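Methods — Computational structure assignment.
A single polypeptide chain was analysed. Its primary sequence is given first, followed by the predicted tertiary structure written as C-alpha cells.
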Amino acid sequence: MYVSFPIRTNLFLIYHVALQNIPMVVSLPLESKCGIVCIEIEFVRVTYRFEDFVHQSLEARCETELLGHLTKALEQQGYEQIVFAIFNEPDISAASHSFGYYEHAVEEWNRLYTESDYVRIDPVVRAVKAGAKAFTWDDLPKFFSMTRPQQQYMSLVGELGMHQGMAVTLAGGRAGVGLSTADKSDRRPGDVAMASAICTHFYQAFRDLKSCTTSPAVGPESLSIKEREVLIWVAAGKTDFEIAQILDISQSTVDAHLRSVFRKLGHLIAWEP
C-alpha cells in the first residue's frame, strides 16, 4: 500500500507517516516548456542497510543467526519468501546438501514440492544449476523452452501465493537462493542487483561457518569489511564508478580496495581481463 501526498502537504504529516514505515509518494509540480507537469517522487523508509547486513553476518556465531540476518535483509528488499538450496558444494559437508536447506516460504508449496518431487522439473532449479546469474522468473523462457509440466508447475506456484520471483545463483550453480513475495502487483519488490549482493555475501559467510576443510592462511576471512563490500558489488556486475556511488567513496578508493583484494586473494581468483 502506498500513501500519496501533494507537495503542499504538511511536512510534519509526511514525517509521521514515514515513522510508521509506510511507503509514500509525493507529487511535485514542475514548470516546463509544455506547461506544468507533475512528477512523483517515491519515499521508502530504509531501516536496515546493506552495510548493517555485512557487519552482522560477519559477526554471526552460528548458521541460525546468519540465516536470521539473511531473512531480515531480504524482507527489507520486499522478498519475504526465501528458499536456500545447496546442490553440490565441495567446501561444505555432503550431509548439508539439500534443496530446502532453509525455507521461509508458503507451507502448502513446501508440502506439495516435497510430495510431488518437483525438484525434478523445477525450471528455476535448472537455470540455477546451469549457472545463470541472478534472474527473475520472467527470464526463464530466455534460457530454454519450458515443458508443459514446467509451465504447469510455475502456474501452481502463482496460485499458491508466490509472485514476483527471482533466483540468485551461487558458486557457479552449486547453490542458490530463490525469492518471491505474496504481493501480486506489477511493482518489482526490490533491486535484483541488491538481492544478489545480499545472497552472495551471505553464502560466503555461510561457507566460512560450514567449511569442512581447513582454511588457507590467507582467505576471504582476511578481507576488511569495505573490501568485502566492494568485491560483492563487483560480483553483482557493478562498475568501479557505480560501486563508488553506492558506497559513497571515490573511484580511486574502489580501485585501491580491489588491488588489496587481489593482493590477498590472487592465488584463489581466476582473473579474466
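Note: Residues 1-24, 212-218, 267-273 have pLDDT under 50 and may be disordered.
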